[in-house]
């Protein structure tokens, strides 16, 4: 009798877990893939803003440009400036705080310090993130999507 009860509970838990996995929204990247392979020397005067944590700069590349932000001494993040709500209109820009980016066309807001996550919609997906690698010995930052 106990065995039957435990078996029912076990299969009930498995069934619930399967339903949860099936109901999870899959992230669909609607931003076109564009080859990105950028090397930046942080000694270059164009990138002096990146010498301080919390600052960001725009660079050419990606779909509609890339925003790079220094989030710690050795850590940088890079996101495509294309809004995930509608890649065909507008592009994101930093607000006065420098840690939030906004698409003025649709009003969506994203956090640079939280993986490009949505702070305010209508966008439901985060910004497209690129891989970054920083070499403090050469003071070079590499941004790629491979």
Structural class: alpha+beta
Helix content: 10-25%
Gross CATH architecture: 3-layer Sandwich
Q: Which of globular, elongated, flat, extended, rod-shaped describes the shape?
A: globular
Q: Helix segment count?
A: 1
The CATH homologous superfamily is called Rieske [2Fe-2S] iron-sulphur domain
What's the CATH topology label? Rieske Iron-sulfur Protein
Can you tell me the CATH class? Mainly Beta
Q: Output the radius of gyration.
A: 20 Å
Distance between the termini: 56 Å
Characterize the largest beta sheet: strand count, sense, and whether it forms a barrel.
6 strands, antiparallel
Strand content is 25-35%
Mean pLDDT, to the nearest integer, reads: 86
- Uncertain segments are 15-27
Q: N-to-C SSE series?
A: HEEEEEEEEEE
What does the model show?
This protein is an alpha+beta fold. It has a single domain, classed as Rieske Iron-sulfur Protein (3-layer Sandwich), CATH 2.102.10. It is built from one helix and ten strands; from the N terminus they run αββββββββββ. The strands form two sheets. Strands 1-10-9-4-3-2 form a six-stranded antiparallel beta sheet, with no helix packed on it. It has a four-stranded antiparallel beta sheet with strand order 5-6-7-8, with no helix packed on it. A hairpin with a 6-residue loop joins strand 2 and strand 3 (about 65-70). It is globular and about 50 Å long. Residues about 15-25 have low confidence and may be disordered.
């Amino acid at each position: 009798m106990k065995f039957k009860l435990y078996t029912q509970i076990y299969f009930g838990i498995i069934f619930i877990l399967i339903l949860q996995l099936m109901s999870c929204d899959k992230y669909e990247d609607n931003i076109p893939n564009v080859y990105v392979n950028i090397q930046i020397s942080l000694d270059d005067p164009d990138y002096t803003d990146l010498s301080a944590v919390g600052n960001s700069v725009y660079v050419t590349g990606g779909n509609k440009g890339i925003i790079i932000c220094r989030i710690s001494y050795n850590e940088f993040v890079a996101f495509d400036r294309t809004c995930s709500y509608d890649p065909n209109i507008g592009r994101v820009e930093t607000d006065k705080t420098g840690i939030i980016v906004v698409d003025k066309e649709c009003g969506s807001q994203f956090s640079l310090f939280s993986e490009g996550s949505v702070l305010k919609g209508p966008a439901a997906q985060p910004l497209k993130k690129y891989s970054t690698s920083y070499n403090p010995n050469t003071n070079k930052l590499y941004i790629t999507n491979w």
